[in-house]
Amino acid sequence: TPRAAAGAMPTPCSPRRASKERARAGAGGSRGAPLQHSFLTDVSDVCEMEGGLLGLLSDFHSGKLQAFGKECSFEQLEHVREMQEKLARLHFGLDVCVEELPQEQKKAAADRNLDQLLAHV
């Protein structure tokens, strides 16, 4: 479809689709029966979604899509991830030490650990 080729996402609920869903809900007879959405069963909807997703994937690989702008490279994102992982390891290491302390010393140790973590941010 033209929308799928352009990478546009389908509208969430067209009037045609809503009336189909209401008809299915009414045909069930029981009020507690789950509503089956037509986008799960209509081949045309699945093909349209697939086309949209393939368009997004193509845009991503070609560099048209950038979640954080042109000034933020993958190397910078990897560096941030490495710093987060280092901080997480420090956090877990400090937490193990606090768990071994008596209850009355845990608050002071936790405060010191928080100061240490913030110093590494």
From TrEMBL:
It comes from the Eukaryota. Residues 1-34 are annotated as: Disordered. Transmembrane segments: none annotated. InterPro entries: CCDC28 (IPR025271). GO terms for cellular component: centrosome. Pfam families: CCDC28 (PF13270). This is CC28B protein. The lineage of its organism: Eukaryota, Metazoa, Chordata, Craniata, Vertebrata. The gene is Ccdc28b.
